[in-house]
Amino acid sequence: MEVKKYQEAYEKLRGGRNNEPEWLLRLREEAMAAFIQRGFPTLRAEAWRYTDVTAITSALFDADESLPSLTPGIIENLKKSSGGNFLLIVNGKFLKSHSRITDAITVTDIGEAILSRPELLEPHFNRIDASVEDAFYSLNTAFFRSGVSIQVPEKLILKEPIQVVFYTDAGKENAVYYSRNVIVLGAGSKAVLVEKYFSSGEKKYFTNSVAEVVLEKGAVLDHAKIQDEGTEAFHVASTHILQRHGSSFSSFLLSTGGKLARNESRVTLHEEGAACSLNGLYLGDGAQVLDQQTYVEHSKPDGKSHQLFKGLLAGTSRGVFRGRVMVRQDAQRTDAHQTNKALLLSDTAKVDAEPQLEILADDVKCSHGAAIGQLQEDALFYLRSRGIGEKEAGQILAQGFAREVIERPELEFLKDVLLKFVNKKLEKQFT
Q: Which among 84, 77, 422, 52 is positioned nearest to 253, based on CA atoms?
């Protein structure tokens, strides 16, 4: 029934896509066929064994084309501390009139870019291995209409971060918003990209986002994502990064919002000497489900990857970390490490951790590990013996646990903002 409804919605859109390039129409048809054949993932699927998406599949979400009225106060609040490069996407639509760019980069609505310069985008679409595609990726390819294309020229070092705000004010219950974003950094360029996902109200809606990122030779991208949507929101996002020779990618994820939020990062170190660092912090309470998935593929020699994810979970919330590192036969002298640590702040919270290594080369340095526990009683006792209340003592220890992953040099400009989100969530967790 769920599959049929999406199939019917796709058929209705077919006639309005005659102006799209042939390669995109073909990708859409293939994606829809794959979705019809496979359907939505169940707990029997290896990649989804810890995350039940019945709440999404049973809701039968419909596309929402409406735009909320944005008062000057709302816009100024969204632009707060955004700097010179600010992109606003509302209900999945890029609002150029409320955005601003000061660096010499090219930013285009994805729909306009497909019609005006399709040859620039075609190489960056659907580079994912078809065997790992899932229903949500396929649906995004079949249905997306909005998003942004960001092109950074060769050797350009951006003066300010690119801050992209995805703001949702659902026009109806059970609305779905598809966003497709393409980011390409030219050889020798350097940029910082920050994504922020916020929402207004407590309507049930679904964000389905896909980003395709390409780093050419020697390019450097520092990426951060803050996901703090409403308690009734569903969020499924995947980011696919292709790295050329000597490029560097670092990312940080802060996931605190939504009823169910799943973030997937798939990195391919495609050429020699590429390096990536994936880091994240997930904070859950109530009955939230926060799912973090990573896949790093070392294809060539002298690659480096480092992963550190931490979780703080209260109530009956559930956290998931599933990280996989693949070292191909040609990827000699690979240096790859991943760690997941989580603290359970209640007796009913739960974490599932599954770090994985698959090594086909023989000259490597690789490790993985996971640790799950609770706040240390002796540390709590020490703080309480100094006159600090039980709640405050717990918050101090939890914040200290979180700081390790936040206090990174590339996040210095965001540290105060991140700590505000963390403290707001900790206040809720310890209430």
A: 422
Backbone angles phi and psi of 48, in degrees to 5: -125, 20
Residue 9, strand partner residues: none
Token pair 């005659």 in the structure block, residue? 18
Q: What is this structure's pTM?
A: 0.93
In a domain, 324, yes or no: no
Dist CA 162 CA 192 (whole Å):
6
CA angle (255 as vertex; 190, 55 as ends), nearest 5 = 130
**What's the pLDDT band for 118 if we cut at 50, 70, 90?**
confident
Whose CA is closest to 230, among 166, 292, 280, 181? 166
pLDDT digits (tens, 9 = 90+) for 170-202: 878 889 999 999 999 999 999 999 999 999 878
Q: Strands across the sheet with 304-313, in order?
A: 93-94, 85-90, 162-168, 190-199, 220-227, 248-255, 275-284, 304-313, 334-344, 364-373
* Residue 285 located in a structural domain: no
Q: 267 with 223: CB under 8 angstroms?
A: no
Angle formed by the axes of helices 415-429 and 390-406, nearest 10°: 140
Our count of domains for the chain comes to 1
How do strand 175-185 and strand 248-255 relate by DSSP bridges? unpaired
Task: Examine the pLDDT at 131 and tell me if it is beyond 60.
Answer: no
Q: Name the β-bridge partners of 366.
A: 336
- Residue 38 located in a structural domain: yes
Contact 100, 84 (CB under 8 A): yes
Is 63 a residue whose pLDDT tops 90? Answer: no
Could you tell me the two tokens for 315? 């109530």
Q: Quote the domain boundaries for residue 128.
A: 2-271
